[in-house]
């Protein structure tokens, strides 16, 4: 059968080649966005003679939408305006034929990087119809034959066509197919590409030093159709029998365990590996990996065979993830009340990998940097990140795989939920990480920041075309999704939350859901109006700013709260949409007498409420939003704000509340409600908590980016050095015997910040340590390497760069390469920076890593214009390398968002209007908005901050 295909095989043009990899906590989740409220109804049972209308839209599926508004942007150039409104043509697959079971055999050819496929799909024909319509892209479909199971008759398709734009494959039959059941046989060929999507190849160095390739898959969101023709929508669930025809000495894995291995008579170097039938599942979760791997294994206490596959020679680096996996499975079983349903779970490290990790059922794929832990080379930050990623992807095995969103509009159900649960499990496994506190400085704050833009979007966002789908893997789906689940969890309590989750997962097992299905289950469990409350958070973008006023009445504190939409742009408070927003906000308070115990938890259902808190002394402070649980900002009048300062200083206020106050205040500065945050930082002098310092560090690094454009940048850096020097002295350079995980992270955080302020002593020490390290005299601990590399390159010349590039090339640990790569952009020397950019797109750098090296240049004021020009000059190369989605959007965001002039805003707008990059449309709108906000902010505060700094130093 495969011989026959081979004769038809087109000679594939060799795809342009690329290089090597990693992701990091700093840019952990995908970051880009989207906006309009249009959606696509599914054309039901249309036939070829009556094709579905080209466009069926315009309200969100399953939503009572109209109450909520989405704000169109202002100030955009007309070209961009025009583009925004032109929707990409899209319609969902018709329902006349739906899949029940796939039997797929794939035979890859590692000589010419093509593959051949034979597929039998059992279909249910709901209505007599001449056409079978499914998805395919960049496949050469050679044959389609229908076999009716009732009559047993075979029928060859009259025509087969693939529309590469709509990614639709149509097989037309005459006479039309009768309703009932049958099987369509398809034969096809394709190529293993270098784009990290579909069935693609991933490069590694063989033991002989030669380049070799593994064949791996990445199908989410819409790329299974690049590997085999299929009904590539999450609601078209079916069972899968996968078979792989592979060389006998290669490891070949798929979602399920091997059922049998058969001989392959045509070539005795090959055999056919057949896997067990999968449960009913969506196409985006199918996976297979073929290549050179080794593994470590264990069986979890709940009886699941777990393995971590690594590149040859690195199996010890799989041990950490393996132990996390073996503990997480029984934890989730207990938490959800449902056991992991497959007999095995493999985790595999893939060198070339676009995302951080992918939750394919039973075969989770990871970037090497998100899975492998080397006892010497891995930093505490990476180890923590790996625990989170492993916890995240395993959470999807229930939330996503077992129960799946009906359509991508509900993507947040997968990603927001998994991004919440990963913290639950890491908190359980590693209480010493204090991970829930870190949730706030990482996930929560990131979501608030993005969601304060007018170009944000609601969590539930109608999407159609694959490019639009790619765009919503962003901080709204992930971080806002996780943050509102955390708020909900607190609102209904853990017991009801778990009960509701169990109802949801049991009721919808092996099926698809809408957001409302989750609310219904939680409502049943808790008796609370979850749908009504949560709809205000998922169907409208943004979040409230709660203004507080208070007054003492005997021993009662009377708190008056008013909510309005928070905008980063103060001008929007006057927009006509401003008043249309309102939320149902779970609120709580805490007070000086017992800061750790929330009092008076209630639901704010109106725009204005008065809450009476009995038993509060007149000299006590009262704080809203203890633990920073509610997804909102709080604005206190200055006289109330100062009352908190002693409690920050003496740390009576818990860390999360110190962070909450600081970050809310910073948001007030950003939106023009307050003039500076620097004065308040004085209260944090005695701070020793890692997470609070990381919040201070976030504030200071944002200001450092902005004030780089002022005359007083040097003064600002001095202020920063002064602020961080106390804690730097106390953490020192030397790791202390038996110190905690968080103290290790604190040291690198503090020293990194000092480096970014140009602190000469720290930079000199970095140079000294790198010399010792290079001479083999004293190895730098992994945690301190970012500090050292950045310090050294920041004052380095071309020779320094060459030395670092040599280290990059010589390292075979992708985490180390990533650390070096992300440091390079801190150079100040223009020639060095130019070379760094060239290096980023060279053969030495994997295409997934290019982006982070370029970003490091773009984060540097001197490098920013260089990086932006380089992006423009290489637009063709970059556009081809990243055809859509995550990486390119991230690049655009970080290269552009820190510009500060209207001229830059225009140049970015015009460039992307003329050179659109798929999947970055919303990101472009957001960065342009951010640039204008930066400009406004500088204009507003520049003078005052300058005066403050002059007096402070
Ligand atoms: N389902 C995603 C992987 C994915 C992302 C597929 C984007 C397609 C497009 C996976 O579960 C995920 O969320 N991965 C994260 C890591 C996670 C720990 C936040 C990622 O890749 O960034
Ligand atoms: Zn995920």
From TrEMBL:
<keyword id="KW-0031">Aminopeptidase</keyword>
<dbReference type="InterPro" id="IPR050344">
    <property type="entry name" value="Peptidase_M1_aminopeptidases"/>
</dbReference>
<dbReference type="InterPro" id="IPR045357">
    <property type="entry name" value="Aminopeptidase_N-like_N"/>
</dbReference>
<dbReference type="GO" id="GO:0043171">
    <property type="term" value="P:peptide catabolic process"/>
</dbReference>
<feature type="site" description="Transition state stabilizer">
    <location>
        <position position="478"/>
    </location>
</feature>
<feature type="domain" description="ERAP1-like C-terminal">
    <location>
        <begin position="621"/>
        <end position="932"/>
    </location>
</feature>
<dbReference type="InterPro" id="IPR024571">
    <property type="entry name" value="ERAP1-like_C_dom"/>
</dbReference>
<feature type="binding site">
    <location>
        <position position="396"/>
    </location>
    <ligand>
        <name>Zn(2+)</name>
    </ligand>
</feature>
<feature type="binding site">
    <location>
        <position position="392"/>
    </location>
    <ligand>
        <name>Zn(2+)</name>
    </ligand>
</feature>
<dbReference type="GO" id="GO:0006508">
    <property type="term" value="P:proteolysis"/>
</dbReference>
<dbReference type="GO" id="GO:0042277">
    <property type="term" value="F:peptide binding"/>
</dbReference>
<dbReference type="Pfam" id="PF01433">
    <property type="entry name" value="Peptidase_M1"/>
</dbReference>
<dbReference type="InterPro" id="IPR042097">
    <property type="entry name" value="Aminopeptidase_N-like_N_sf"/>
</dbReference>
<dbReference type="InterPro" id="IPR014782">
    <property type="entry name" value="Peptidase_M1_dom"/>
</dbReference>
<feature type="domain" description="Peptidase M1 membrane alanine aminopeptidase">
    <location>
        <begin position="320"/>
        <end position="537"/>
    </location>
</feature>
<dbReference type="GO" id="GO:0016285">
    <property type="term" value="F:alanyl aminopeptidase activity"/>
</dbReference>
<keyword id="KW-0479">Metal-binding</keyword>
<feature type="binding site">
    <location>
        <position position="415"/>
    </location>
    <ligand>
        <name>Zn(2+)</name>
    </ligand>
</feature>
<keyword id="KW-0482">Metalloprotease</keyword>
<keyword id="KW-0963">Cytoplasm</keyword>
<comment type="similarity">
    <text>Belongs to the peptidase M1 family.</text>
</comment>
<dbReference type="Pfam" id="PF11838">
    <property type="entry name" value="ERAP1_C"/>
</dbReference>
<dbReference type="InterPro" id="IPR034016">
    <property type="entry name" value="M1_APN-typ"/>
</dbReference>
<dbReference type="GO" id="GO:0070006">
    <property type="term" value="F:metalloaminopeptidase activity"/>
</dbReference>
<keyword id="KW-0862">Zinc</keyword>
<keyword id="KW-0378">Hydrolase</keyword>
<keyword id="KW-0645">Protease</keyword>
<dbReference type="Pfam" id="PF17900">
    <property type="entry name" value="Peptidase_M1_N"/>
</dbReference>
<feature type="domain" description="Aminopeptidase N-like N-terminal">
    <location>
        <begin position="98"/>
        <end position="285"/>
    </location>
</feature>
<dbReference type="InterPro" id="IPR027268">
    <property type="entry name" value="Peptidase_M4/M1_CTD_sf"/>
</dbReference>
<protein>
    <recommendedName>
        <fullName>Aminopeptidase</fullName>
        <ecNumber>3.4.11.-</ecNumber>
    </recommendedName>
</protein>
<dbReference type="GO" id="GO:0008270">
    <property type="term" value="F:zinc ion binding"/>
</dbReference>
<dbReference type="InterPro" id="IPR001930">
    <property type="entry name" value="Peptidase_M1"/>
</dbReference>
<dbReference type="GO" id="GO:0005737">
    <property type="term" value="C:cytoplasm"/>
</dbReference>
<dbReference type="GO" id="GO:0005886">
    <property type="term" value="C:plasma membrane"/>
</dbReference>
<dbReference type="GO" id="GO:0005615">
    <property type="term" value="C:extracellular space"/>
</dbReference>
<feature type="active site" description="Proton acceptor">
    <location>
        <position position="393"/>
    </location>
</feature>
């Amino acid at each position: 059968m495969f011989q026959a295909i081979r004769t038809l095989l087109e000679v594939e043009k060799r795809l342009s080649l690329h290089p090597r990899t990693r992701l990091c906590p700093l840019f952990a989740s995908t970051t880009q966005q989207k906006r309009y409220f249009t959606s696509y109804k599914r054309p039901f049972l249309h036939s070829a003679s009556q094709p579905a209308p080209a466009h069926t839209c315009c309200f969100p599926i399953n939503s009572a939408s109209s109450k909520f508004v989405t704000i169109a942007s202002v100030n955009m150039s007309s070209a961009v305006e025009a583009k925004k409104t032109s929707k990409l043509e899209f319609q969902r697959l018709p329902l006349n034929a739906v899949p029940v079971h796939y039997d797929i055999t794939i035979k890859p050819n590692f000589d010419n990087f093509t593959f051949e496929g034979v597929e039998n799909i059992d279909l249910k024909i709901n209505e007599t119809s001449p056409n079978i319509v499914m998805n395919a892209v960049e496949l050469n479909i050679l044959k389609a034959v229908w076999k009716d199971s009732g009559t047993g008759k075979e029928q060859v398709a009259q025509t087969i066509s693939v529309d590469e734009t709509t990614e639709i494959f149509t097989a037309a039959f005459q006479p039309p197919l009768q309703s009932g059941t049958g099987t369509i046989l398809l034969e096809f060929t394709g190529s293993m590409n270098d784009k990290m999507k579909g069935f693609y190849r991933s490069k590694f160095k063989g033991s002989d030093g030669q380049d070799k390739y593994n064949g791996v898959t990445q199908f989410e969101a819409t790329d299974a159709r690049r590997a085999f023709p299929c009904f590539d929508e999450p609601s078209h669930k079916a069972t899968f029998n996968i078979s792989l025809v592979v060389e006998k000495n290669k490891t070949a894995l798929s979602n399920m365990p091997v059922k049998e291995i058969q001989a392959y008579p045509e070539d005795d170097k090959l055999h056919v590996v057949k896997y067990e039938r999968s449960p009913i599942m969506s196409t985006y979760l199918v996976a297979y990996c073929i290549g050179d791997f080794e593994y470590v294994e264990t069986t979890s206490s709940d009886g699941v065979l777990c393995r971590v596959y690594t590149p040859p020679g690195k199996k010890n680096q799989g041990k950490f993830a393996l132990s996390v996996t073996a503990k997480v499975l029984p934890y989730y079983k207990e938490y959800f009340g449902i056991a992991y349903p497959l007999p095995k779970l493999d985790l595999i490290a893939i060198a070339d990998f676009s995302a951080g990790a992918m939750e394919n059922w039973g075969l989770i794929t990871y970037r090497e940097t998100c899975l492998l832990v080397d006892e010497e080379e891995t930093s505490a930050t990476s180890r923590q990140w790996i625990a989170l990623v492993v916890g995240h992807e395993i959470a999807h095995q229930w939330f996503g795989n077992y129960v799946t969103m009906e359509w991508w509009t509900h993507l947040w159900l997968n990603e927001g939920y998994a991004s919440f649960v990963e913290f639950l499990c890491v908190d359980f496994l590693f209480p010493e990480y204090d991970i829930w506190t870190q949730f706030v400085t990482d996930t929560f704050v990131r979501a608030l920041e993005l969601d304060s833009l007018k170009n944000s979007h609601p969590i539930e966002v109608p999407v159609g075309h694959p490019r639009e789908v790619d765009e919503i893997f962003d901080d709204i789906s992930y971080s806002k999704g996780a943050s509102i689940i955390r708020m909900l969890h607190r609102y209904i309590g853990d017991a009801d939350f778990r009960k509701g989750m169990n109802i949801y997962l049991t009721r919808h097992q092996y099926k698809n859901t809408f957001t409302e299905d989750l609310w219904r289950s939680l409502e049943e469990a808790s008796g609370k109006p979850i749908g009504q409350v949560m709809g205000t958070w998922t169907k409208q973008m943004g979040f409230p700013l709660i203004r507080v006023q208070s007054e003492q009445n005997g021993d009662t504190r009377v708190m008056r709260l008013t909510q309005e939409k928070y905008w980063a742009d103060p001008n929007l408070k006057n927009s006509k949409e401003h008043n249309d927003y309102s939320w149902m906000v779970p609120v709580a308070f805490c007070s000086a007498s017992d800061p750790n115990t929330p009092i008076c938890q209630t639901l704010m259902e109106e725009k204005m409420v008065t809450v009476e808190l009995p038993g509060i002394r007149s000299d006590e402070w009262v704080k809203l939003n203890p633990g920073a649980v509610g997804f909102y900002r709080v604005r206190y009048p200055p006289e109330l704000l100062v009352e908190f300062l002693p409690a920050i200083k003496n740390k009576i206020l818990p860390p999360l509340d110190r962070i909450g106050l600081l970050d809310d205040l910073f948001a007030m500065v950003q939106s023009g409600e307050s003039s500076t945050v620097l004065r308040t930082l004085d209260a944090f002098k005695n701070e020793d908590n890692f997470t609070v310092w990381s919040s201070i560090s976030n504030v200071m690094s944002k200001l450092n980016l902005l004030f780089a454009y002022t005359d007083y940048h040097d003064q600002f850096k001095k202020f920063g050095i002064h602020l961080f020097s106390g804690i730097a002295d106390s953490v020192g350079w030397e790791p202390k015997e038996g110190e905690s995980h968080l103290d290790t992270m604190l040291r690198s955080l503090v020293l990194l910040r000092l480096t970014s302020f140009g602190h000469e002593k720290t930079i000199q020490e970095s140079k000294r340590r790198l010399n010792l390290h290079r001479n083999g005299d004293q190895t730098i601990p992994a945690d301190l390497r970012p500090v050292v590399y950045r310090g050294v390159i920041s004052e380095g010349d071309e020779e320094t760069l060459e030395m670092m590039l040599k280290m990059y090339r010589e390292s075979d640990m992708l985490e180390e390469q990533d650390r070096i790569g992300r440091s390079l952009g801190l150079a100040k020397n223009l020639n060095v920076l130019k070379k760094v950019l060239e290096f980023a797109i060279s053969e030495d750098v994997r295409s997934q890593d290019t982006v982070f090296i370029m970003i490091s240049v773009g984060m540097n004021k001197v490098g920013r214009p260089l990086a932006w020009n380089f992006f423009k000059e290489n637009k063709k190369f970059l556009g081809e390398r990243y055809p859509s989605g995550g990486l390119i959007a991230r690049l655009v965001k970080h290269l552009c968002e820190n510009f500060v002039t209207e001229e830059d805003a225009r140049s970015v707008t015009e460039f992307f209007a003329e050179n659109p990059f798929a999947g970055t449309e919303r990101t472009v709108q957001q960065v342009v908005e951010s640039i204008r906000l930066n400009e406004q902010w500088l204009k507003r505060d520049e003078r005052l901050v300058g005066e403050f700094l002059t007096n402070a130093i």
